[in-house]
């Protein structure tokens, strides 16, 4: 089968298409022939080496996958050969999804509903699980509460806006000028062009802030959250911000996710009821993974997907 691998950290030039033997499922695992593979900023960070989550190369990137069951490992009873499935295999371990076939723990997969083709199913898992972890599990968001979603036109942001609205929240979002209309169309009650306006001068007493940037950005997020509120940071936070949050009773949570059928099913239910949609900005052939990373770096509305 074809797979994308790399033998060193670096730019997109390190991504190489190779031919490797088909993997075989062990007990409790499923062999999936991939129909589509989601591309995430995490992939870029791991490729470059500034977030070496899975250690040193060689490795194969990718954690979002949708496709068809081709073989079952011993003891797997949830699925049958030919079933359509999707999920986020093995995070925070290596998912190995940039390939024509991938072995996935059966517990990391969910049956793909008829409402999703493989492209849109593959675009969903990582961003959905991140939004669900932030909004439902950490914040316990309630109807009428006020949320700020930063970078709301991106992968996590665009599903977070929709999830928060579905739960009855008032949603303020930041986005670049080119994505303002897109984010408004997702249902955001207020959209701030972050290049033109400073949200810290416009907002206060928010119940939840989703901060995809971490680091120094968290100080700005803390400035607009209420005492006792929640800041969900998708990247690492500074110790001084941890201290500042604790002094105000703010829950400052560095969001980390693992595969979850419960979270994926919650999104499937919203999609099936017409209350949420995952937006795919473009697709690329598997051997164009580097071009997809370049496009992601230029900023896209929603998600990008590879097709083997």
From TrEMBL:
In the UniProt record, which is one GO cellular component term?
cytoplasm
Q: Which SMART domains match?
A: PKS_ER (SM00829)
Q: According to its UniProt record, where is this protein located?
A: Cytoplasm
Q: Does the keyword Nucleotidyltransferase apply?
A: no
Gene3D superfamilies of this UniProt entry? Medium-chain alcohol dehydrogenases, catalytic domain (3.90.180.10), NAD(P)-binding Rossmann-like Domain (3.40.50.720)
Cited InterPro entries: ADH-like_N, ER, GroES-like_sf, NAD(P)-bd_dom_sf, Quin_OxRdtase/zeta-crystal_CS, Zinc-ADH_QOR/CCCR
Return one GO MF term: oxidoreductase activity
**Enoyl reductase (ER) domain residues:** 10-306
Keywords attached to this Swiss-Prot or TrEMBL record, sorted alphabetically, are: Cytoplasm, NADP, RNA-binding
Which PANTHER family does this chain map to?
Answer: QUINONE OXIDOREDUCTASE (PTHR44154:SF1)
Q: Subunit comment for this entry?
A: Homotetramer.
Q: What is this protein called?
A: Zinc-binding dehydrogenase
Q: Which organism is it from?
A: Aeromicrobium yanjiei
């Amino acid at each position: 089968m074809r797979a994308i691998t790399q033998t060193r950290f670096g730019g997109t030039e390190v991504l190489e298409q190779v031919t490797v033997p088909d993997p075989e499922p062990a007990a409790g695992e499923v062999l999936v022939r991939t129909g589509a593979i989601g591309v995430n900023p995490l992939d870029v960070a791991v490729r470059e080496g500034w977030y070496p989550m899975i250690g040193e190369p060689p490795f194969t990137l990718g954690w979002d996958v949708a496709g068809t069951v081709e073989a079952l490992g011993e003891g797997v009873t949830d699925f049958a050969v030919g079933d359509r499935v999707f999920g986020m295999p093995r995070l925070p371990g290596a998912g190995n999804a940039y390939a024509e076939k991938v072995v996935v723990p059966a517990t990391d997969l969910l049956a793909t509903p008829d409402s999703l083709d493989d492209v849109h199913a593959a675009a969903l898992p990582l961003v959905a699980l991140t939004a669900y972890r932030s909004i439902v599990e950490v914040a316990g968001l309630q109807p009428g509460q006020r949320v700020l979603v930063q970078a709301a036109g991106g992968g996590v942001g665009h599903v977070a806006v929709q999830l928060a609205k579905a739960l009855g929240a008032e949603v303020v979002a930041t986005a670049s000028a080119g994505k303002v209309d897109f984010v408004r169309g997702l249902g955001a009650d207020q959209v701030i062009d972050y290049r033109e306006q400073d949200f810290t001068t416009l907002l206060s007493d928010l119940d939840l802030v989703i901060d995809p940037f971490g680091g120094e950005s968290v100080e700005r997020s803390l400035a607009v959250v209420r005492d006792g509120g929640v800041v969900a940071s998708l990247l690492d936070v500074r110790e001084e911000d941890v201290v500042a949050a604790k002094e105000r009773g703010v829950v400052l949570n560095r969001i980390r996710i693992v595969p979850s059928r419960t979270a994926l099913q919650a999104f499937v239910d919203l999609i099936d009821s017409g209350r949420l949609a995952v937006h795919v900005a473009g697709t690329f052939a598997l051997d164009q993974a580097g071009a997809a990373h370049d496009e992601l770096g230029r900023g896209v509305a929603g998600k990008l997907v590879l097709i083997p």
